[in-house]
Protein 1
Amino acid sequence: MEKEQQVLVVFPHPDDEAFGVSGTIASHVNMGTPVTYACLTLGEMGRNMGNPPFANRETLRSIRRYELKEAARVLGISDLRMLGYRDKTVEFEDPDKLTAEISDMINELNPSLIITFYPGYSVHPDHEATGEAVIRAVGQLPAEKRPKLHCVAFSKNCVEELGEADIVHDISAVADQKLDAIRAHRSQTELMLADMADGLKKKDPATMAWLNFERFWTYKF
């Protein structure tokens, strides 16, 4: 993995960082690279409430805020920014306003790498709107000043239409940190981790591949 000057991660929900990029984040942090994570919402419309349930619709926002901070601590993220948008409404935000906010962060941080969702291939409307805003913000920069864009894609048609991932990171050295970041989002992940426990214990190849490798597509303007 190449050492970066500054990494900016932009996702809409707490736990988006944990599943697909937490090993990559931890690896950059371990190399001494500052990482900023801009999380647009607090995931207050999440469907899971813990297993057994310990949250409700009224308390979930504050619980997920705490979980996000804990995941950031686990990964060593030096700069966590909670942007205050409402969960499941990012697609309805003024696109110019959202783009401008991301542009302001890019101008402030001058990241050499931005990680976000690949528009059209990230399933959830909040994911799509976030990725689109990042692409617009980067696209406004002169080509020679644009940071690298590494995008997460996981729709069923992503490989068919985009080809195999351009970048595959072996993050097995920090797999325990990745699991700890996922566990930090307890309200959302307890049931999933319980279902995966047998695969992790038996080192099921599919489960271990999901844990140890993170895939990205580069966005080309």
Note: Residues 60-75 form the longest helix (16 residues).
Protein 2
Amino acid sequence: MTPPLIERPRHLDRGRRALLGLLTALAWAVYVYLWLPLLTLLAWLLGVRTVYTRLYLEQSQLDAFLLLALPVIAGLCALVLIVWAEYNRVRFGGAERRRHRADVDDAAVAATLGATPALASGLRGARVSVLRLDDHGRPVRRSDR
């Protein structure tokens, strides 16, 4: 029995991968489009439309506070985030805090998986393996991708 195609996406030709990517993007666009009525309702409840109408359509002028204060506030927020990131980099950088775990021997792997010692040692040497299981869920053999 051949494995499903989804496990081997590199075996698809470039045109089919592009088509599947386009279909995925289209599905996400439809999904986002379905959320628009709820987002519109939330914006209306929060008064975004009223604020926009009063500030820009009725008065037909820009507020000097908005032009001056908002960029300053945005700059201060960026400055605070940069300072916080640099503080964390200085505080936590350079030191490896994770402890090295002891290696697990092949016998322990074989006992835990219910596999043969040869299979357990083969798993250690392989970078990526696909395990074939019997009816009881015990590994019987492996194949490299």
Note: The chain has three domains: 11-61, 62-94, 106-144.
Protein 3
Amino acid sequence: MAWFFLIIAGLLEVVWAYSMKKSAGFTLLVPSIVTLVTMLGSFALLALAMRSLPLGTAYTIWTGIGAVGAFLLGITFLGEAVTPLRLIAALLIISGIVAMKLGGGN
């Protein structure tokens, strides 16, 4: 269950990062509420995952899912640039996530 909680926590991190961007600095009510609710859910699920997963593994994978997910949402929905260097950076993050999973011990 810890890995399930961690993956959902990472996906919620993507949602709260995107909704924070859409909240225009917390000046729009609905995206601001979505940000706060999904942030709370993300942190709660991360905490549950950390009950049995190592700190370094859980935190790295959580932030990695959030970073790559936010990168993809930015490209898809916000028209952010797709450059070779940004793609390489995302691939390096994914490589780090895989390495943490393989070396995590749980």
Note: Residues 2-103 form one domain.
Protein 4
Amino acid sequence: MSIADVTGLETLRRVQADPPADFPPIRQLIGMTFDVVEPGRFVASLTTRPEYANPMGTVHGGIIATLLDTVMSCAVHTTLAAGVGYTTLELKVNYVRPAQTDGETLTGEGVVIHTGRRTATAEGRVTDASGRLIAHATTTCMLFEAAV
């Protein structure tokens, strides 16, 4: 599957339906599942574990930021034509409450605000299994012609 041949939406739906063990590698590293892939919307989740702990014993902010970056940029990806790539240009995260490392499910949802010719923006939220807000964020992604 080449980025030049399929849209972003098609790419992510293929990964969701039949996830390759090593793609994308970050998914495997932190145990993310791709739960919802729709045009302009992407939902992923992970189960917390002790390895995610910061020195205070709660989930490290970098894990939560990674989940947010993934869901927002993948939401952008769902809006892109074949041959168009992207990268995160800016990421702003607001942490609301700590998440525990005891196996709770964290769910991230990203929604596109705007996709233009050169940039796209999205917003995201991470909630715990009870629906409580853990963090929210915004992103700007730079769009470019992908190298094939």
Note: The chain has one domain: 8-145.
